[in-house]
Design a protein that fits this description.
Layout lengths: L5 H5 L4 E5 L2 E4 L4 E7 L9 H17 L5 E8 L3 H10 L6 H20 L3 E11 L5 H4 L8 H31 L5 E3 L2 H11 L14
Antiparallel strand pairs: 1-2, 2-3, 3-5, 3-6, 4-5
Helix pairs in contact: 2-6
């Protein structure tokens, strides 16, 4: 069976590069990602639920661009935790503590065998698409050396990143009114998130960057 070349798969990935916590897409768009805390809405009082709902409504009214809300569901692997407990068992001073710890380990192992314990992470993808200036659109008519082109591209990236960061701050500030804390992901964190997203089986809700 012939193996597909790496390029055949990579052509379906919309990401060109990741720089300074910014996803640069092949079509020229930019994406920033916020990781958000969660709220146990069901445990709130009626007044608190109303305040959270109103705060979220106000947040949506403050933004004039689209956002994507992503819920990342993953099966929790408790094997390292159980292995750590088994290592600690001989260190218990009393026989009763060793028995109780052993019973606890067996309970957790049996429970995880019968039910999938999921962990959820919440993200918001914020887009920014820079406008093509007249100067940029007609630059091909002028002869420019490579250093000038690189300088122009770097300036364009920094300007677009500044605009994207303003949007990220706006979203984070709006969510704070609902009690949700939002923090931008860095480059390494985005790489890890995208890796899980493009590897089926590790992620239930893959992140989409083309919205």
């Amino acid at each position: 069976m012939a193996t597909k070349p790496a390029g055949a798969t990579q052509q379906f990935v919309p990401v060109k590069e990741i720089r300074n916590g910014v996803i640069v897409l092949k079509d020229g768009g930019y994406r920033g990602v916020l990781i958000c805390s969660s709220i146990n809405f069901g445990l709130k009082s009626a007044d608190e639920q109303h305040a959270i709902t109103l705060g979220f409504q106000n947040f949506l009214n403050t933004i004039d661009f689209s956002i994507q809300i992503v819920v990342n569901s993953r099966k929790m692997d408790l094997r390292p935790y159980l292995a750590l407990l088994e290592e600690k068992a001989p260190e218990q001073k009393s026989e009763l503590m060793r028995i109780q710890l052993h019973e606890y380990i067996e309970f957790v192992r049996s429970f995880t065998d019968q039910a999938n314990i999921m962990t959820k992470s919440f993200y918001i993808v914020v887009p920014y698409t820079p406008r093509v200036s007249v100067m940029g659109a007609t630059s091909f008519l002028r002869h420019e050396n490579s250093s000038a082109k690189n300088a122009t591209a770097e300036t364009s990236f920094e300007e677009s990143r500044a605009q994207l960061e303003q949007r990220l701050s706006l979203v984070a500030g709006g969510l704070s009114g609902t009690g949700v804390r939002a923090v931008p992901l860095g480059t390494e964190e985005i790489i890890e998130l995208l890796y899980r997203s493009f590897n089926p089986g590790e992620l239930e809700n893959p992140i989409r960057l083309d919205t």
